[in-house]
């Protein structure tokens, strides 16, 4: 083999290695960039209808409706806690959550109503469910399924507790960028503090299974997709 031919092969191998290392799929966990994005939404013609359904010395409850979606946000003053839930109205599939970009106006309207003056809000917890945000849920499922630390046959980490594993995935990667942005628009900063009640399912059973299989996950693999999330909320002008 000539020296020119050997140099050409080495150059080709070097190019292949660099290309592999720079691919979005391989570097995703290292860079922490959210790989899951919703399709470009069309313009919404639905207005958000917001009303206060309970107001007392200890609780403020907000109900918001938009199209077939209904959201509730409760401000529990004594517990220093905000709880948020999203539902579809009767007759609609309850387990098919909309992309965050489509449901964000509901949460935004609830926050503006409950926290009219963010500067007067002490440190609070924000409690919600992961599965209500398909972008974030899909990221956790994808990162777990592609992690060498996750046993996809049994749906559990190889050498740690499931809660701590999912917490590590969520905090080390930018898993909730959409929530950060929405809260920031209200002069509020959120940080994930803990997760609990992790739910596991087969890739084929998830509403975004086509995205996960396109990224290399097998339909029968077991991955985390839902959890109760606890965020710390504070005023950030």
Account of the protein in words:
Residues 1-34 and 40-45 have low confidence and may be disordered. The relative contact order is 0.15. The protein is globular and about 50 Å long. The chain is built from 7 helices and 9 strands; from the N terminus they run ααββββαβαββααβαβ. By secondary structure, it is an alpha+beta fold. The chain has helices at 3-22, 24-31, 100-114, 134-145, 162-172, 177-184, 209-214, and strands at residues 49-55, 59-66, 69-76, 81-88, 124-129, 150-151, 156-157, 188-202, 222-235.
The SSE order reads HHEEEEHEHEEHHEHE
What coarse outline follows from CA principal-axis ratios? globular
Structural class: alpha+beta
| N/C terminus separation | 67 Å
Helix content: 25-40%
Mean pLDDT: 82
DSSP summary, beta strand count: 9
Domain module count: 1
Low-confidence stretches: 1-34, 40-45
**Mind telling me the C-alpha Rg?**
21 Å
Count of discrete alpha- or pi-helical segments spanning 4 or more residues = 7
Strand order of the largest sheet: 1-2-3-4-5-9-8
Major sheet: 7 strands, mixed
- Give the strand content: 25-35%
> Which oligomeric state applies?
single chain
């Amino acid at each position: 083999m000539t020296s020119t031919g050997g140099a050409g092969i080495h150059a080709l191998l070097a190019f292949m290695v660099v290309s592999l290392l720079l691919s979005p799929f391989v570097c995703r966990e290292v860079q922490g960039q959210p790989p899951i994005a919703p399709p470009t939404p069309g313009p919404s013609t639905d207005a958000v209808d917001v009303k206060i359904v309970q107001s007392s010395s200890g609780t403020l409850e907000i109900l918001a409706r938009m199209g077939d979606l209904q959201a509730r946000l409760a401000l529990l003053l004594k517990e220093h806690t905000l709880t948020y839930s999203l539902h579809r109205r009767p007759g609609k599939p309850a387990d098919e959550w909309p992309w965050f970009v489509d449901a964000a106006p509901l949460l935004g309207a609830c926050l503006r109503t409950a926290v009219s003056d963010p500067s007067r809000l002490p440190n609070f917890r924000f409690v919600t469910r992961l599965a209500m945000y398909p972008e974030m849920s899909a990221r956790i499922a994808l990162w777990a399924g592609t992690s060498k630390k996750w046993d996809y046959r049994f749906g559990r980490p190889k050498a740690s507790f499931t809660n701590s594993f999912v917490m590590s995935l969520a905090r080390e990667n930018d898993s909730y960028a959409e929530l950060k942005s929405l809260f920031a628009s209200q002069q509020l900063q959120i940080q994930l503090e803990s997760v609990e009640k992790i739910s596991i399912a087969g890739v084929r059973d998830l509403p975004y299974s086509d995205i996960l299989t396109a990224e290399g996950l097998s339909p029968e693999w077991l991955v985390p997709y839902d959890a109760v999330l606890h965020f710390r909320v504070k005023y950030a002008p």
